[in-house]
Amino acid sequence: MALAAVAIARTTVDMVRFVTFRSDLYRSRQQLREMSDAQLLDIGLTREQANAEAARPFFED
Questions:
Q1: 56 and 29 in contact (C-beta within 8 Å)?
Q2: Is the pLDDT higher at 8 or at 59?
Q3: How far is CA 27 from the centre of its chain?
Q4: Three-state DSSP state, 59
Q5: What is residue 6's predicted lDDT score, i.e. its pLDDT?
Q6: CA 60 to CA 18: how far, in whole Å?
């Protein structure tokens, strides 16, 4: 019984981490879309690169 509880807890933690990571990734990609061309230049990206990254689905790394 205790092993099952540990397995459930571990699975729950893994799921929360996964959702948090994907949410952060999505948010970061959307922030790229909102940056000015000057800001993108500062981080070494073109507008086209930023738009391409922002258009990627949340489930892609």
A1: yes
A2: 8
A3: 6
A4: coil
A5: 94
A6: 12
Domain edges within the chain: 18-61
Residue 58: partners with Cβ closer than 8 Å, 6 or more residues away: 22, 23, 25, 26, 29
Predicted confidence (pLDDT) per residue in 9-55, tens digit: 999 999 999 999 999 999 999 999 999 999 999 999 999 999 999 99
pLDDT attached to residue 61: 76
Q: Render 2-52 in DSSP notation, one character per residue.
A: HHHHHHHHHHHHHHHHHHHHHHHHHHHHHHHHHS-HHHHHHTT--HHHHHH
